[in-house]
Write a structure and sequence with these properties.
The chain is mostly helical. The protein is built from 18 helices and no strands. It has a single domain (9-496), classed as Amino acid/polyamine transporter I (Up-down Bundle). The protein is globular. The two termini are 22 Å apart.
């Protein structure tokens, strides 16, 4: 029996009132939080990988990932408006399918946000080290500000200690502790920088598009619908899904949102629509202006990004698929080196907003699980001055910073997607279950065509999950097993719902 210890929705709302967070975010701030979490990783980091897997058809991959996210967003909007408290998919699942399923989802979300934040700290450090290793727009002697090589990469990447990844993680942790509204205002500035940078890229790249660069359009094919494990449109969609996951962090801020019944749906759907438009325009500009043809292996299929064979093939190549900073690379190849450097600088300035939202999401998940008794109560302590969950923020910040300083992320980003896809599918299922169990409950926002939208969301999540790498699936299963052990040893007995405790 897995559907047990279901926490009534009214009780969830009552529990939140006992130890609540300050409501201080409006619809514009929420939309900007979503954009801040989404635009960044995919555009500035994963565009080249998507091109290597799918070629110019990466635009279809972006669309597929966006459609799956859009379907899930409609389900999220209904539950977030009904249950405007912290916890996102974890809380929703708790109120519909019970404690065990909720624990699995919450544990998966922890994996999602931790890997996501760590990935971006490492990505940010690469951009920043790239600037320090050069002349900073002619202001200093090339390399005069460069860190020692062993401080530029982590131990498990062949270096020593990635100092910049560690420091940016600590800085974001401090920002989150001093207050949600303060971090949201900083995030708004960073979002503006990203939007300006991407708009400049689009304005320059799209007029330079040549039809010949878009052929062949689909060199890697569609991939296998039941599991391509790599290349093709579906394989690329499974990987770049990571670029969209930030929108769900909007719902984790429900408890800190003014008028959440109206503003949460606006923030979720608004952020997703804006980000999708930018992804498609930037993808079209990059592929059409410079070309996005993948490097093929002996079997005639695209090489898998991140492999030794791909690294070897990229030596001396100016191909888009070989660039670690694809948008800046496109500008330089189009004879706009200054703009290329400025876009690289914009990435350095703006990527911390992605780290911020990933860590924000994880701390709020932990906060809510602690408040429910599934994790130690100290993790839901609220700072007396800043009204933020400072203990779990410090803990999360240290883990993310240390892991960013030591580990390469690589294909583990796919593992982050596995946790996200599970959460999205559970939310869609939860909407359908609740429609049957409590049809008369007030729904400030109703998912349209729910018996079409929600099943399609579940199918879409399953399609992308099976197209993740084998390593990602194995790590996800291992993490789930660890989570079940933790639950059995701690949460099972100490839960607020154990022995009839109302919480």
């Amino acid at each position: 029996m897995i559907f047990w210890r279901i926490k009534p929705l009214d009780q969830i709302l009552a529990t939140a009132e006992k130890k609540s967070l300050k409501r201080q975010l409006g619809p514009v701030q929420l939309t900007l939080l979503g954009i801040g979490a989404v635009i960044g990783t995919g555009i500035f980091v994963l565009t080249a990988e998507a091109a290597q897997k799918a070629g110019p058809a990466m635009m279809l991959s972006f669309v597929i990932a966006a459609v799956v996210c859009g379907l899930a967003a409609l389900a999220y909007a209904e539950l977030a408006a009904m249950i405007p408290v912290s916890g996102s998919a974890y809380t929703y699942t708790y109120g519909v399918m019970g404690e065990l399923i909720a624990w699995i989802v919450g544990w998966a979300l922890v994996l999602e946000y931790a890997i996501g934040a760590t990935a971006v700290t490492v990505g940010w450090s690469k951009y920043m080290n790239g600037l320090l290793n050069n002349d900073l727009f002619g202001l200093v002697k090339p390399g005069s500000l460069a860190l020692p090589a062993w401080l530029q990469t982590g131990y498990f990447s062949g270096g020593g200690f990635n100092l910049l990844a560690f420091l940016i993680g600590i800085a974001v942790t401090w920002l989150l502790v001093i207050g949600t509204s303060k971090s949201a205002r900083v995030n708004a500035v960073l979002v503006a920088i990203k939007i300006i940078a991407l708009t400049v890229f689009i304005v320059i790249a799209i007029p330079a598009v040549k039809n010949a660069n878009l052929h062949p359009f689909m060199p890697g094919g569609w991939g296998n619908p039941i599991g391509s494990n790599g290349v093709g449109v579906l394989g690329a969609a499974a990987s770049i899904f990571f670029a969209y996951v930030g929108f769900d962090a909007v719902s984790t801020a429900a408890e800190e949102t003014k008028n959440p019944n109206r503003n949460i749906p606006i923030g979720l759907i608004g952020a997703l629509l804006i980000c999708t438009a930018f992804y498609l325009l930037v993808g079209y500009g990059a592929a059409g202006s410079l070309g996005a043809q993948p490097i093929l292996g002996a079997n005639g299929m695209p090489l898998d990004p991140g492999t030794p064979a791909m690294t070897q093939a990229c030596i001396g190549s100016n191909a888009l698929v070989c660039s670690g900073e694809p948008l800046a690379h496109v500008m330089r190849m189009l004879d706009h080196p200054v703009i290329g450097n400025l876009i690289g600088l914009a990435a350095v300035v703006a990527l911390p907003s992605v780290i911020l939202m990933m860590m924000f999401g994880q701390t709020r998940i932990f906060f809510t699980m602690s408040r429910d008794g599934l994790l130690p109560d100290v993790l839901s302590s609220v700072h007396p001055r800043f009204f933020t969950p400072h203990v779990i923020t410090y803990l999360t910040g240290f883990v993310v910073s240390f892991c960013g300083a030591m580990f390469p992320v690589g294909k583990l980003a796919d593992t982050s997607n596995a946790g996200t896809l599970l959460a999205f599918a559970m939310v869609a299922i939860g909407v359908m279950v609740l429609r049957k169990r409590q049809p008369d409950r007030a729904r400030p926002f109703r998912t349209p065509l729910v018996w079409i939208v929600c099943p399609l969301a579940v199918i879409g999540c399953a399609l992308l999950f099976v197209n993740l790498s084998v390593v990602a699936k194995e790590v996800f299963v291992g993490w789930a097993v660890i989570g079940l052990i933790v639950y059995r040893l701690y949460g099972y007995r100490r839960s607020q719902l154990a022995n009839g405790n109302a919480g």
